[in-house]
Amino acid sequence: MRRTALLASAALLTGLLPLASAGAAAGADDPAPVPVDTFEGEVPFANPPADGIFPWGSDTDDPPQLALTARSDAPEGAKVLTGSYDISGYGGFTHDFAYAQPAQDWSAHKGIRFWWDGQNNAKKVAFEIKDGGANGEASELWTTSFTDDFTGWKQIEIPFTDFTYRTDYQPVGGIDQVLGLTQMWGYAVTLPVGVKGRFAMDDVELYGKADQSLRASVMTDSAVYPVKEGGTAAVKVSVATTGSAPIDEPVTVAYESAGGTAESGKDYTPVKGEITFPAGTASGTSRTIQVSALKDKSAESAETIPLKLTVTGAKAPAETPQVVIDAHGLPYLNPKLPVRKRVADLVSRMSLEEKAGQMTQAERGALTAQGDIATYDLGSLLSGGGSTPTPNTAAAWAKMIDSFQLRAQASRFQIPLIYGVDAVHGHNNLVGSTIMPHNIGIGATRDPGLAQKAGAVTAAEVRATGIPWDFAPCLCVTRDERWGRSYESFGEDPALVKSMETIIQGLQGAANGKDLKDDDKVLATAKHFVGDGGTVYGSSTTGSYTIDQGVTKVTRQQLEAIHLSPYQTAVDRGIGSVMPSYSSLDILGDGQGPVKMHARADMINGVLKDRMGFDGFVISDWAAIDQIPGDYASDVRTSVNAGLDMIMVPYAYKDFRTTLIDEVRAGRISESRVDDAVTRILTQKFKLGLFEKPYADTSGASLIGSPEHRAVARQAAAESQVLLKNAGGVLPLRKTQKVYVAGSNADDIGNQTGGWTITWQGSSGPITDGTTILEGMRRAGGDVTYSKDASAPTGGYDVGVVVVGETPYAEGVGDVGNGNDLELTAADKAAVDKVCGAMKCVVLTVSGRPQLVGDRLGSIDALVASWLPGTEGDGVADVLYGKRAFTGQLPVTWPKSESQLPINVGDASYDPQFPYGWGLTTLTKVPAGGTSTLKVLALVAEAADRTGASEAGRAAVAKARLLVQQKLASTITPATAKPFADADHLLLTGRYAAAVAKLKEAYLAS
Question: Which residue range or ranges hold the Calx-beta domain (predicted)?
Answer without folding.
Answer: 205-310
